[in-house]
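Predict structure. Input: PIN domain-containing protein, 132 residues.
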Amino acid sequence: MSNTIIDSDILIYFIKGKPEVVDKLLAIPPHNLYTTRINYTELIYGAYNSARVAENLKVVRPFLENFQILEFDQESSEVFAKTKAHLKKNGNIIADMDLMIASIALQHGFSLVSNNIKHFERIDGLDLVGWL
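Output follows.
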């Protein structure tokens, strides 16, 4: 199994206990399992933006400790800028946070598991995997 970045939507499906996501995620060896600081931020924000902040933080924080967290660094920034310029020239706009996640995956040569296929498939070279 190759190194795999898990996108926020899939992380949320796992937390909610969606069986097909739970089974597939648990089948990935821990040393191949990653998410990004952007996904981490999205999940923490979701907890703070919920009606049950403390309860959700108690679930989300320990859950995220199971993942190796990839940072958005200088190399990711270069990939982001080049990819965003290319997309813009072709009339494709992708939200910056999603493009940051994709840039990290591209930089490392990792697969990205997401349910947001239509959004991410516009990014050349991204190894995109859909589970649902």
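The chain has a mean pLDDT of 95.
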